[in-house]
């Protein structure tokens, strides 16, 4: 009898896993609140370059025909009774469940941020919000731009810096650089949290005249004056505040509730990817509390780890990251590291930028597993060396 596997979430990790499981061995069900699958990294280019917002495809078309797809939100996951309950009232018993729920933006955590993002937009939630931000940038004619992150938890750690570097590129190309002050704020002690990558980033920010305000823990925003205030007592008055909002785990009830941390992230064993303290349950992707980057590459590798574990093969997730990082003006790099290997100090090149853009075009093939041989070779060739 086929093993019943329910995958909660149709993002990168959930879709890759569903495509990887043998339909003759597993009875696979994917549950997602959305019928469409969005390539989320493209929101950056919708917001900063006015790229087309057609960045989503039908999720059903990305899955094998024998995978059951249910478009519905998940209301409850009972990890003791081994059932998933949808908002529409459908009860799904399982032999194994994989929580690939992703995370949600939660601007309400910062007073004033919801009003600011409603007026200005952001590039971490929806295509409509990214288009709104593009209209603001497109109409900008000088003043102060303040861009940064409101919380240490961030989807795609390079994305705040990508945003400020691409905004600077746009302003410079439009001849407005001498009329514009650009400030990058971060809760971390340096522009990029990992020191080896900061040694690459900091000189680039300085050369492009971007001010950095470290230890800026955003406390509140005055929407009327567009002034940002930090917990430490600093403030930034600006014309265009672009804020990466805080993130929080999906609004799903769990039994037992102790599998969630304070940010509603699933407490997950960092190597086996099993939900801690629970049998027959895995968690992958952004919705976990794993001490690694919340990025598509991580979700890809985590999905492959779980697929191997379900098939009874040796399966250990090593915390590998390989985040593409667009540094503007046609240059890019990758943030590479793992649990045991420190982040690699990788200078930007035009070739790395080309690789990032090529990946965006190949994303839909990657979801189906068609590029697995090439990706496996790439990861072997670029594996970071463990610390001595």
Short description:
The protein is of the alpha/beta class and 388 residues long.
Write down the overall mean pLDDT.
96
CATH topology of the largest domain: the name is FAD/NAD(P)-binding domain
Helix content class: 25-40%
What is the CATH C-level name of the largest domain? Alpha Beta
Count of separate structural domains: 2
Backbone shape: globular
C-alpha end-to-end distance:
48 Å
Strand order in the largest sheet = 5-2-1-9-20
Main sheet makeup: 5 strands, parallel
Could you describe the 3D structure shown?
By secondary structure, the protein is α/β, with parallel strands linked by helices. It has two domains: 3-102 and 250-318, 3-Layer(bba) Sandwich (FAD/NAD(P)-binding domain); 107-246, FAD/NAD(P)-binding domain, CATH 3.50.50. Helices cover 28% and strands 25% of the residues. The chain is built from nine helices and 22 strands. The strands form seven sheets. It has a five-stranded parallel beta sheet, with helices on one face. Strands 8-7-6-19 form a four-stranded mixed beta sheet, with no helix packed on it. The protein has a four-stranded parallel beta sheet with strand order 13-12-11-17. A hairpin with a 4-residue loop joins β7 (83-86) and β8. α1 (12-20) runs parallel beside α7, α2 runs parallel beside α4 and α3 (113-120) packs across α4. The mean pLDDT is 96.
Question: How would you summarize the topology of this molecule?
Answer:
Blueprint: E1 3-8, H1 12-20, E2 26-32, E3 36-38, H2 43-49, E4 56-58, E5 68-71, E6 74-78, E7 83-86, E8 91-93, E9 96-99, E10 103-105, H3 113-120, H4 127-139, E11 143-149, H5 159-173, E12 180-185, H6 195-207, E13 210-213, E14 218-222, E15 227-230, E16 235-237, E17 240-244, E18 247-249, E19 253-255, E20 281-283, H7 296-310, E21 321-326, E22 332-337, H8 350-368, H9 372-381
Parallel strand pairs: 1-2, 1-9, 2-5, 6-19, 9-20, 11-12, 11-17, 12-13
Antiparallel strand pairs: 3-4, 6-7, 7-8, 10-18, 14-15, 15-16, 21-22
Helix pairs in contact: 1-7, 2-4, 3-4
């Amino acid at each position: 009898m086929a093993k019943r596997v329910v995958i909660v979430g149709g993002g990168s990790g959930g879709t890759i896993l569903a495509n990887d499981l043998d339909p003759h061995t597993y009875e696979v069900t994917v549950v997602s609140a959305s019928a469409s699958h969005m390539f989320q990294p493209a929101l950056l280019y919708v917001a900063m370059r006015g790229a087309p917002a057609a960045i989503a495809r039908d999720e059903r078309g990305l899955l094998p025909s024998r995978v059951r797809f249910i478009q519905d939100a998940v209301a409850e996951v009972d990890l003791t009774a081994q059932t998933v309950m949808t908002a529409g009232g459908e009860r799904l018993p399982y032999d194994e469940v994989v929580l690939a729920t992703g995370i949600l933006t939660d601007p309400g955590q910062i007073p004033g941020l919801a009003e600011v993002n409603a007026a200005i937009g952001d590039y971490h939630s929806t295509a409509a919000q990214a288009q709104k931000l593009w209209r603001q940038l497109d109409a900008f004619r000088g003043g102060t731009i303040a861009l940064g992150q409101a919380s240490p938890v961030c989807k795609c750690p390079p994305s705040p810096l990508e945003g400020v570097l691409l905004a600077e590129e746009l302003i410079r190309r439009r001849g407005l650089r001498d009329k514009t002050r650009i400030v990058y704020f971060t809760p971390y002690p340096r522009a990029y949290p990992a020191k080896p990558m900061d040694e690459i980033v900091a000189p680039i920010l300085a050369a492009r005249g971007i001010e950095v305000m470290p230890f800026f823990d955003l406390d509140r925003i005055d929407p009327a004056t567009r002034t940002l205030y930090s917990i430490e007592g600093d403030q930034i008055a600006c014309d265009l505040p672009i804020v990466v909002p805080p993130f929080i785990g999906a609004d799903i009830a769990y039994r037992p509730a102790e599998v969630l941390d304070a940010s509603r992230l699933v407490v997950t064993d960092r190597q086996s990817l099993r939900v801690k303290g629970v049998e027959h349950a895995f968690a992958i992707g952004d919705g976990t509390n794993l001490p690694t980057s919340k990025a598509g590459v991580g979700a890809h590798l985590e999905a492959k780890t779980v697929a191997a574990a379900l098939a009874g093969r040796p399966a250990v997730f090593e915390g590998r990251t390989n985040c593409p990082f667009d540094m503007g003006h046609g240059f890019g790099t990758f943030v590479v590291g793992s649990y045991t290997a420190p982040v690699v100090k990788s200078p930007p090149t035009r070739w790395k930028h080309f690789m990032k853009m090529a990946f965006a075009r190949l994303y839909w093939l990657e979801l189906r597993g068609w590029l697995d041989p090439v990706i496996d070779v790439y990861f072997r060739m670029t594996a970071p060396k463990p610390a001595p």
